[in-house]
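Bumping my old thread because nobody answered last time. Still need a sequence for this structure:
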């Protein structure tokens, strides 16, 4: 069997190296998801608010922070899909499962979210981690930023910390799944060859 595979240029998969490699790939893609959630989502929001919308002559009436928090889901999905299609180039199946960790963390935060006996726990937690409607005044310096601090700041930063990784990871995993099956991907110029996995030789692990 091995000789027949070798004759067709296909190497047998060594399960002893396949599992550690898959774990390493999973951690790599998970790190990418959290990088996107922490930096790229807010960067894309700032570019949209400060550059794109004014160029289109549709400037936002919201402040920069308020605009970002009110559109976290949109920019998270855009980042996840874009970089997910880049990741689809490498055909890592582990990339399709990166949503598991952020979902577990958010689920724990959701279940343990404090609510009084007079409040509906689900409604309060859902509003805190998923609702929009942020009202945050524009701040032009640190005094204005911290002087105008309110509960919407706390809610927004919690969504940025716990909800955005869920949005990004689901979009990222979906894009890698679709890209791998339909051959849709965005090539990343200058990527090192050791990152790439031959789908035929290694079974697209």
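Sorry it took so long. Here it is:
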């Amino acid at each position: 069997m091995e000789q027949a595979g070798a004759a067709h240029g296909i190497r047998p998969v060594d399960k002893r190296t396949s599992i550690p490699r898959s774990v390493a790939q999973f951690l790599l893609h998970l790190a990418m998801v959290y990088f996107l959630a922490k930096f790229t989502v807010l960067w894309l929001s700032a570019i949209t608010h400060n550059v794109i919308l004014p160029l289109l002559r549709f400037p936002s009436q919201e402040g920069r922070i308020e605009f970002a928090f009110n559109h976290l889901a949109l920019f998270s999905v855009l980042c996840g899909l874009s970089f997910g299609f880049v990741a689809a180039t490498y055909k890592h199946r582990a990339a399709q499962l990166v949503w598991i960790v952020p979902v577990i963390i958010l689920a724990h935060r959701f279940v343990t979210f404090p609510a009084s006996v007079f409040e509906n726990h689900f409604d309060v937690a859902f509003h805190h981690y998923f609702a929009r409607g942020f009202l945050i005044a524009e701040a032009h310096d640190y005094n204005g930023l911290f002087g105008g601090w309110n509960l919407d700041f706390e809610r927004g930063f919690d969504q940025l910390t716990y909800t955005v990784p869920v949005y990004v990871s689901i979009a990222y995993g979906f894009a890698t799944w679709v890209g791998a099956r339909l051959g849709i991907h965005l090539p990343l110029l200058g990527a090192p060859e050791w990152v790439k996995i031959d789908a035929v030789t290694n079974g697209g692990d």
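The mean pLDDT is 83. Let me know if any region looks off to you.
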